[in-house]
Amino acid sequence: MDQLTLLLEGFAVAFTPQNLLFLVIGAILGTAVGVLPGLGSAMAVALLLPVTFSLDPTGAFIMFASIYFGGLFGDSTTGILLNTPGNSSAIATTFEGHRMAKDGRAAKALGTAAIGAFIGGMIACSLVVFFAPYIVELAKLFGPAEYFALAVFAFVAISAVVADSVVRGLVALGIGFALALVGIDGMSGAERFTFGSPVLFDGISIVVITVGLLAIGEVLHVASHIRSGGRESFLAPHGTPFLSKSEWRQVLPAYLRGTAFGVPFGAIPVGGSEVPTFLAYGTEKRLAARRRDAEFGTVGSIRGVAAPEAAGNATAGSAMGALLGLGLPTSATAAMMIAAFQQYGMQPGPLLFERSGDLVWPLLASLFLGLVILLIINLPFAAIWAKLLLIPRHYLYATITVLAVLGVYALGSRTADLWMALGIGVVGFAMRYYSIPLAPVLIAAILGPMAETQLRRALAVSEGDVGTLVASPLTITLYLLLAVVVVFSLVQHLRGRSRAHR
Predict the structure, then answer these.
(1) What residue ranges are annotated as transmembrane (predicted)?
(2) Which of 50, 174, 271, 360 could form a disulfide with 162 if both were Cys (CB 3.0 to 4.6 A apart)?
(3) Which residues make Cβ contacts (< 8 Å) with residue 124, sequence separation at least 6?
(4) Three-state SS across 346-380?
(5) Counting Cβ atoms within 10 Å, is residue 294 exposed (0-12), middle (13-18) or buried (19+)?
C-alpha cells in the first residue's frame, strides 16, 4: 500500500537524531505544561508556538506533534492528584482517578491513564494513516460552497456544544469574528476595523490572539482567585504504575470501548473530547452497575480511568486526520495546530498531501514515535511529573507571563503586539468570569477568513445566487447534520436546566 511506503519514508525522516531530539523536547514541554492546573494541551501549544519559529518546518511540526499529545498526557495528572483536571477533556478521568488516589492507588491511576492515552492515540493514528487517501479524495469534492458549509458546521456545532448556553457560545463566536476581520480585506483591498493605524493593516496575529486569550487570560483569572495561605490537597503517588495481568484483563476491553467512542468524534467539530470521554465514562458506569462492581464510585475503578483516557487521545488522533485532510479543526487544540501551519504559509487540506508530502508523512510518523516517547516518560516517572504541582502558583504564573510576553514580542519585535495581547488577555479574563467558552473564539479567528473568502467566491461564481450554497448533496448533508447537532445540544441544555430546577 502506498501509504505504508510513505509512512516508512516519514519514519526515516523522523528517526534522525535532530528530529528525535525535537520529539523528546516537545514531549517534555507538552507534558510539563499539561500537568500544571488550569493550563492543558491547548495552552501548551499556544505558549510554545513562538518557540518553534527558528526551526525548519519539518522539525517544528514534529515538535508540535509531541507537544500536542504531551499536553493531553499531562491533563489527567492534575485531576487524579488534585481533583482539578488540567483540561475539560480530563474531567471524566478525574471522577474515578481521584477516588483511586484517595484510596492510596494514585500511581496505579496515573499508569492506567498513561497506557490508555497511548492505546487510544495509537489506534486512532493508525486509522488516520490508512484512511488518509480517502479523506483527501473526499476533500477534493469540496468547492467554495462546500468549504463554507464545513466552516459554518464547525462554527455553530462547537458554539452549541461546548457552552452551557447557546447564547454564550454565539457571543464567543462573535468575538472571534471581530478579531478575524481586523486588517486589509484580501479581496477588495479595503481597510477594516484598523482605526487608521498602520499597525493593524496586517490584522492581529493568531499567535497574539491565542497567547493573550489562553495564557494571559488564564494568568489574570488565576490571580483573581489566589488566596494567601490556601493550598490544594495534594496526594503523592505511591506504589507501582504498572498493571498486573488480572488488571490488564479488566482494562483492555475498557480501553477498546473508549477508543471506539473517541475515533469518530475526533473527525467532527463537536467541541473536542469532552463528549466521547463522558460517553465512555457513562458506559463503564452502566457496565459496573450490571457487574455490581463495588469499587466504581467508591474507592475508584481502573476501568473508569481507562475508558475516558483512551477516548480522549483517540479523539485527538482522529482530529489530526480531519485537520490534515480537510483543514477542519475539531477542537481548540486542533485550531492551534492550524495556527502553526499558517505561520509557515501552509493551509491544511487535500493539497497539503500533494504539495507538502515531505512534511505530512514525517509528521504522521512522529505521532507514533511521540506516543512511545510519552509513554516512556509518563509511565515510570509519574511521581516526578507530580512534583511540578508543588510549585507555588504565584511563581508558576509569573513564569508563564514572562514566557508569553517574550513569545509575543519575538513574533515581530513590536510593543503594539504586547498591548494587543494584554487587551485580548483582559477579554479572556472577562470570558472566564462570565463562563463564555474560549474554543469558539479560536475557531472563528482561524477559520473566519477562510469562510469569508469561500462564501464570496461561491457567490461570485454563481453571480450572486444564494441558492448555490445549498445546491450540492454535500452541502445539504452538512447542514442537515448541523441541524441534528443543534437540536441535540438544545435538548441536552433543556434537560440540564430541568434537572437543576428540581
Answers:
(1) 20-49, 61-82, 109-135, 147-163, 170-187, 199-223, 322-341, 361-383, 395-412, 418-447, 468-491
(2) 271
(3) 259, 262, 263, 266, 313, 314, 315, 316, 317, 318
(4) CCCCHHHHHHCHHHHHHHHHHHHHHHHHHHHHHCC
(5) exposed
How do residues 3-46 score in pLDDT, each as one tens digit?
A: 788 888 889 888 889 889 989 988 888 888 777 765 666 666 77
Side chain identity at 232, as an amino acid letter?
E
Phi, psi at 184, each rounded to 5°: -85, 130
- Reading the block at residue 24, the C-alpha cell is 523528546
The set of residues, in sequence order, having a beta carbon less than 8 Å from that of 138 and lying 6+ positions away, is 325, 326
Beta bridge partners of 96: none
Are the C-beta atoms of residues 269 and 485 closer than 8 Å to each other?
A: no
pLDDT, residue 229, reads: 47
Rounded Cα distance between 252 and 123, Å, is 13
Torsion of CA 57, 130, 140, 323, to 10 degrees: -50
The sign of the dihedral angle between the CA atoms of 193, 195, 196, 198 is: negative
Q: How far apart are CA 404 and CA 402, in angstroms?
A: 5
Whole-angstrom distance, CA of residue 356 vs CA of residue 58: 10
d(CA 146, CA 155): 14
For residue 170, give the C-alpha cell.
Answer: 454565539
Extract the C-alpha cell encoding 148. 463554507
Q: State the DSSP H helix or E strand holding residue 285, giving kind and residue range, or none if neither.
A: helix 274-291
- Is 157 in contact with 168 (CB distance < 8 Å)? no
Identify the CA nearest to 272 among candidates 149, 128, 127, 437. Answer: 437
For the stretch 388-409, pLDDT in tens is 667 777 787 787 788 778 777 8
Cβ-proximal residues to 37 (8 Å cutoff; 6+ apart), any chain: 78, 82, 84, 86, 232, 389
Q: How far apart, in whole angstroms, are the C-alpha atoms of residue 89 and residue 92?
A: 7
In the chain, the amino acid numbered 393 is R
Looking at residue 161, its pLDDT comes to: 61
Coil/strand/helix, residue 55: coil
Q: Which ranges constitute the DSSP H helices of 83-195?
A: 91-102, 106-140, 144-162, 166-180
Task: Show Cβ contacts of residue 455 under 8 Å, excluding neighbours closer than 6 positions.
Answer: 144, 148, 469
Contact between 39 and 33 under an 8 Å Cβ cutoff? The reply is: yes
d(CA 11, CA 31): 23
According to the model, what pLDDT value does residue 29 have? 83
Q: How far apart are the first and last CA of the chain?
A: 58
Which three cell numbers, joined as nine digits, stand for 114?
498513561
Predicted structure pTM score: 0.71
